[in-house]
């Protein structure tokens, strides 16, 4: 299936975007890869290690193993660990952290110079949302989500010129203005998993739900929009943070404002992994009263718990 961009159209990667990937916290990247980091050290995955020889230098955002000599930054770590080439490693990192790489942005000349998000180009897609078979299968058969939630979220779908089906997810601000669009690849396991139009600001997801909250009500915070849909389908009110590896300053500020303006309580089921717990701790700094709910053993995220619950 022709998912990767045609090699002849390959462009050099944007320097600023590469810097963003290099600036991702190295320990967060290591944890995302599955390493257990403790006191800036981990077992080295590149030799048979029993003594946590791999250490992280947070100030330089690098890693080094004192036994086998493996060393480098975030991109090197992904390349070596997942045995990917440079470009594939960059794609993986970008994909895991909702960072937009230029190679996936639209390449037509009339919009290539435009950097801000043109909501008028996209808003009509969400006026009459339409779900193709792949989207219906994903949302209703695989994820078992509530149709009313999907209508509330105005999810729609489309196919690109190569016939790849995409789920199109609109991001609105609290006033209901379209501020960003996220495209999710509906082919299982295909990369890129996500695509964003130029200038899309996909920060906190489902902000319009704040207008429905009554004083004293609970608001759940999830990692990513799929968990948010599951949370909404389970009857909770919820917003989503786009990535566990990096809580942006802007999103943190927005949460602080929400906390100061609304008298509600904040709740979270962190994913059962290191990045999930790390996100919880980051959020707790901004929202001191954030309540930690524990997922049962064997459930890696709330979507799984939701699916287990509705089966019974
Ligand atoms: Zn080593």
Topology:
Layout: H1 15-23, H2 26-33, E1 41-42, E2 54-57, E3 62-65, E4 71-72, H3 74-82, H4 86-96, H5 109-112, H6 119-123, H7 133-142, H8 147-152, E5 156-159, E6 165-172, E7 178-185, E8 194-195, E9 218-223, H9 225-233, E10 238-241, H10 249-261, E11 265-268, H11 274-286, E12 291-292, H12 302-311
Parallel strand pairs: 9-10, 9-11, 11-12
Antiparallel strand pairs: 1-2, 2-3, 3-4, 5-6, 6-7, 7-8
Helix pairs in contact: 2-3, 3-4, 9-12
The structure holds zinc ion.
Residues 44, 46-47, 49, 53, 65, 67-68, 70 line the site of zinc ion.
* Distance from first to last alpha carbon: 37 Å
Order of helices and strands: HHEEEEHHHHHHEEEEEHEHEHEH
Portion of residues in beta strands equals 15-25%
Gyration radius, in Å: 20 Å
Briefly say what this structure is:
It contains twelve helices and twelve strands. It is an alpha/beta fold and 312 residues long. A hairpin with a 5-residue loop joins strand 5 (156-159) and strand 6 (165-172).
């Amino acid at each position: 299936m022709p998912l990767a961009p045609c090699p002849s159209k390959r462009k050099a990667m944007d320097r600023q975007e590469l810097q963003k990937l290099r600036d991702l916290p190295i320990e967060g990247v290591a944890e995302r890869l599955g390493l257990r980091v403790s006191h800036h050290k981990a077992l080295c995955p590149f030799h048979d290690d029993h003594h946590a020889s791999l250490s992280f230098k947070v100030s330089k955002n690098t890693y080094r193993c004192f036994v086998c000599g493996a060393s480098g930054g975030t991109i090197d770590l992904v390349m070596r660990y997942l045995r990917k080439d440079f470009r594939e490693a960059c794609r993986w990192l970008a994909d895991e952290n909702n960072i937009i790489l230029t190679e996936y942005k639209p390449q037509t000349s009339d919009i290539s110079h435009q950097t801000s998000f043109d909501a008028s180009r996209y808003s009509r897609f969400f006026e009459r949302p339409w779900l193709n078979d792949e989207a219906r299968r994903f949302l209703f058969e695989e994820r078992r989500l509530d149709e009313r939630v999907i209508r509330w979220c105005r999810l729609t779908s489309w196919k690109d010129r190569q016939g790849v089906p995409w789920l199109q997810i609109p991001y609105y601000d609290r006033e209901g203005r379209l501020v960003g669009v996220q495209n999710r690849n509906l082919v299982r396991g295909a990369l890129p998993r996500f695509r964003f139009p130029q200038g899309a600001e996909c920060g906190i997801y489902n902000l319009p739900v704040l207008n429905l909250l009554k004083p004293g009500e609970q608001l759940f915070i999830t990692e990513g929009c799929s968990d948010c849909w599951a949370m909404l389908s389970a009857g909770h009110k919820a917003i989503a943070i786009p990535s566990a590896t990096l809580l942006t300053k802007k999103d943190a500020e927005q949460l602080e404002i929400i906390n100061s303006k609304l008298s509600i309580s904040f709740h979270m089921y962190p994913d059962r992994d290191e990045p999930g717990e790390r996100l919880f701790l980051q959020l707790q700094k901004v929202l001191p009263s954030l309540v930690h709910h524990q997922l049962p053993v064997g459930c890696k995220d709330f979507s799984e718990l939701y699916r287990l619950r509705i089966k019974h």
